[in-house]
Design brief:
By secondary structure, this protein is an alpha/beta fold. The chain has eight helices and nine strands. The chain has a single domain (10-235), classed as P-loop containing nucleotide triphosphate hydrolases (Rossmann fold), CATH 3.40.50.300. It is globular, with a radius of gyration of 18 Å.
Length: 240
């Protein structure tokens, strides 16, 4: 059952995150509101994954604050996270979804219909009995998305879900992401692919060395970057 409170807007207020002496995010202030997907981009090591983990509530900022719908300590009932390399349970495709639905509080008698619906939603209908670990990489990523969607999230956080996929598998994942966004789910997605930013992004968060360099519309970011770092990144130059 959905929680009655909203997790949007998601607001970071001068949030920093450090591991030992290494500063990964530095006094980052950002508001993520309802609407089209937000794409988080930047060179490797810029803090993209750490930002998503803070947005999910998996880690706490070492200074500053993060709030969801104005609340500083909101349990992740309306948020879901898909890792770049999701772990499949040693069970069938259907059993992976049954497990996710059980943890989302869906009663047992309602799960078969929900499983069938989710499999259609991610294009895996007909594969419900296959061992999840025998799926292709693209199919596993779609199953991971189905498990996340089983939570009926308001915010869906994706950490480079197409990084290791071929173009056909990438298109299949992108179609699921766009359908989720059209249904009203706020997607926040880290990506290394500027073509993907153009295809999916409503707005872009651009990070360099844990600092927010730019937050703008996706097309503005790609065609008219406002900072020299962003211009170099869009050209394909190394940003160090």
């Amino acid at each position: 059952m959905r929680a009655p409170l909203t997790d949007l807007p998601l607001v970071l207020d001068r949030a920093s995150f450090a591991v030992g002496a290494t500063e990964i995010l530095d006094r980052l202030s950002l508001t993520i509101a309802a609407g089209p997907p937000t794409l988080v981009v930047g060179p490797n090591g810029s803090g993209k994954t750490s930002l998503l983990r803070i947005c999910m509530g998996l880690v706490r900022p070492t200074s500053g604050a993060v709030s969801w719908g104005g609340r500083l300590d909101a349990p992740p009932l309306r948020r879901a996270f898909v890792f770049q390399r999701p772990v499949m349970l040693r069970r069938s495709v259907a059993a992976n979804l049954d497990y996710a639905l059980a943890h989302a509080g869906v009663i047992r008698r309602q799960r078969p219909a929900r499983i069938a619906e989710l499999l259609v939603r991610v294009g895996l209908d007909g594969l419900e009995g296959r061992p999840a670990r025998r799926l292709s990489g693209g199919e596993q990523q779609r199953l991971a998305l189905a498990r996340a969607l089983a939570r009926e999230p308001e915010i869906l956080l994706l950490d480079e879900p197409t990084a290791s996929l071929d173009p056909a598998a990438t298109r299949a994942v992108e179609d699921i992401v766009l359908a989720a966004a059209r249904s009203g789910i706020k997607v926040v997605m880290a990506s290394h692919d500027l073509g993907q930013v153009r295809r999916l992004g409503g707005d872009v968060v651009f990070l360099v060395r844990g600092n927010l360099r730019e937050h703008s519309g996706a097309i503005d970011f790609l065609d008219h970057p406002a900072s020299e770092d962003a211009a170099r990144f869009v050209r394909g130059d190394l940003v160090i």
